[in-house]
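Long-time lurker, first post. I've been practising inverse folding by hand and with some scripts of my own, and I keep getting stuck on stretches where the structure tokens seem ambiguous. Below is the full token string for one chain I'm working on. Before anyone asks, I'm not after the true native sequence, just a reasonable design that respects the backbone. If someone could post their per-position residues I'd love to compare against what I wrote down in my notebook.
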């Protein structure tokens, strides 16, 4: 006997609350999309943090090799001018990450969640769920509304 799938839409948590208009769904979707872009930027910031840290640690080997090769002046230059240097005045990369998180990222997350809570009962991705429902082929096994 073939399994019967419910074709009745996106499922719990992705239905538009009663009385919520199209423009509100679109606006909340745009806000969430902006937050998703900030999430990507934050990932790049963590990559910057880790890559800069790895480069700084690699300088130990460069300084050692310069000394072994008889280039003490150049080894001293790298050690004194670059090794452990701030990436911006007064800050290492972890401090940049922490400042970004507390000054921009966390307030953005909190505001986005509050707007969703106030306007669409906290539901996520309503715009995308409605787009999926409009674009899928009902009855197609690879176009099911839910997992």
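-- Answer (accepted) --
I ran through it position by position. Result:
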């Amino acid at each position: 006997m073939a399994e019967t799938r419910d074709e009745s839409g996106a499922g719990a948590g992705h239905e538009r609350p009663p009385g919520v208009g199209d423009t509100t769904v679109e606006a909340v979707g745009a806000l969430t999309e902006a937050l998703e872009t900030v999430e990507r930027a934050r990932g790049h910031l963590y990559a910057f943090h880790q890559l800069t840290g790895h480069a700084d640690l690699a300088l130990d080997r460069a300084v050692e090799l310069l000394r072994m090769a008889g280039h003490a002046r150049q080894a001293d230059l790298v050690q004194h001018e670059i090794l452990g240097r701030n990436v911006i005045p007064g800050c290492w990369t972890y401090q940049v990450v922490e400042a970004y998180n507390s000054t921009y990222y966390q307030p953005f997350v909190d505001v986005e969640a509050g707007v969703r809570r106030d306007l669409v009962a906290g539901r996520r991705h309503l715009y995308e769920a409605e787009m999926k429902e409009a674009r899928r082929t009902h009855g197609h096994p690879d176009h099911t509304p839910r997992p």
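A couple of notes from the structure itself: The CA atoms of residues 86 and 92 lie 5 Å apart. The first helix runs from residue 22 to 68. Happy to go over any region you disagree with.
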